[in-house]
């Protein structure tokens, strides 16, 4: 068993198919199957079950997969650090939500590169829950998530907030002011229930005595961008962060609806692993990011 095999195993889980994984890794399907059978014999366990949907991890397979992710992440981190040492460059891996990557960080990155020109910055866009999983496994140096992290073992810091507004397509026939009790009369476009900002918004409304099940949710979408496009097309109202809509407000593609007693902000936090941060060569640049991000949001 070697690192490349572990990466192939991770690819099988990602593709849910040995055939697709072998094609993506440019090896034969039979060779990959034999590698899997070898490790199954070595550990005397079955890693995958074959189903009509493809291959799925067994309980033992989940253990193998978990450690495969950790081992390959550590290996990649080691090779990165050696490469950085040899080239005298340093690499910072940032995982952030789509809103942070699209609207908060582009201008911040400009200032980072000016301050730390030798650094190579790698950005990855993921949902908050996936960012937490990756940072916990050592995949990435810093994460930027919505809300306080669920993993209390992280070092975390609030770095900026973004006001949410109820918006509609500019020409949509809807009053400029709405009472909370009348919100159910209009179709709503919402983020999917798995998204953390949706969960935080639901908790906010629950405190106001409003349950999401009482609202007329037309459909759920996976991204702020897709909701914004649907709102511009006047398919429904939407709760969106200001940084994602300010251009559309200026261009008169969207308009703000004044919802009675609605005052909601999403707080964004940086997260780091304690064991990495306390000995990290990246402490200076991470501290700089946390200091300037609020001031440099695009």
TrEMBL record:
From which residue to which does the signal peptide run?
none
Q: Name one Pfam family in it.
A: LysR_substrate
Say yes or no: keyword Repeat present.
no
Q: Which residues form a coiled coil?
A: none
Does this UniProt record's set of keywords contain Magnesium? no
Q: Which UniProt keywords apply?
A: DNA-binding, Transcription, Transcription regulation
* Record-linked PANTHER family: HTH-TYPE TRANSCRIPTIONAL REGULATOR, HTH-TYPE TRANSCRIPTIONAL REGULATOR CITR
- Protein name as it appears in the record: DNA-binding transcriptional LysR family regulator
